[in-house]
Amino acid sequence: MSNQDPIDNSRSEVLLSLSRLLSLAALMETSLACLETKRVTLEEKMIKTYINVLVIAIADYVSGAHAIINAPTFDIEQNALDDLNALIAEMQPVFEDLQNKIDYDWNFLEQYYEHAFYGRLSNDLRFKERIQALSLCVVATVAK
User: Fold this and answer.
1) Predicted TM-score of the model (pTM)
2) Residue 122 gets which letter from DSSP?
3) Torsions phi, psi of 138, nearest 5?
4) Radius of gyration of the chain from Cα atoms?
5) Are 86 and 19 in contact (CB under 8 A)?
6) pLDDT digit string (tens) for 50-104?
7) What is the Cα–Cα distance from 24 to 30, expressed in whole angstroms?
8) Cβ neighbours of residue 34 under 8 Å, at least 6 residues apart?
9) 54 class by beta-carbon count within 10 Å (0-12 exposed, 13-18 middle, 19+ buried)
10) How many other CB atoms are there within 10 angstroms of residue 109's CB atom?
11) Which residue pairs from 5-10 have beta carbons closer than 8 angstroms and sit at least 24 positions apart in sequence?
């Protein structure tokens, strides 16, 4: 049995979630790099712009969380951590699918995938807006 401090366990939970989020951002960056090597379509421009802004939102979120995590004492809003983990779980297969389509066939990507994918990103999934709306999953507390 471990004598680990509950705050250390909480910090570990948050760091693992942030690591998963950053891994997802890295996958998006890989997709962006691959898309740079192909003929550009209008939908692709919109997808690249959307993903770029989403990666910036992820970096801002992670940066803000790290600033708070480093406080000597902190508490976790479990709802916010659960919301973050749920969003990551929803985003992961979407961007894995995009990368699979990029790796599969650019002709298929251009003719059958890009238009519907961008529509889902901007109208249905709205990941950028949802990550920007998340509260930071850690809240500094004042030691008494």
Assistant:
1) 0.88
2) I
3) -130, 145
4) 18
5) no
6) 999 999 999 999 998 888 887 777 777 788 889 999 999 999 999 999 999 999 9
7) 10
8) 99, 102, 103
9) buried
10) 22
11) 7/73, 7/74, 10/74, 10/75, 10/76, 10/138
Determine the Cα–Cα distance for residues 131 and 57; give it in Å rounded to an integer: 7
| Alpha carbon distance 112, 94 (integer Å) | 16
The pLDDT of 5-23, averaged and rounded, is: 84
> Is 138 within 8 Å of 76 (Cβ atoms)?
yes
In tens, the pLDDT along 91-133 reads 999 999 999 999 998 899 999 999 999 999 999 999 999 998 9
**pLDDT digits over 23-35, tens only?**
999 999 999 999 9
Tokens read off for 1: 């049995």
The runs of H, that is alpha helices, within the chain are 6-35, 42-69, 78-104, 106-108, 114-119, 127-133
Is residue 136 within 8 Å of 61, Cβ to Cβ?
A: yes
Question: Could you give the CA distance from residue 128 to residue 95 in angstroms, rounded to a whole number?
Answer: 13
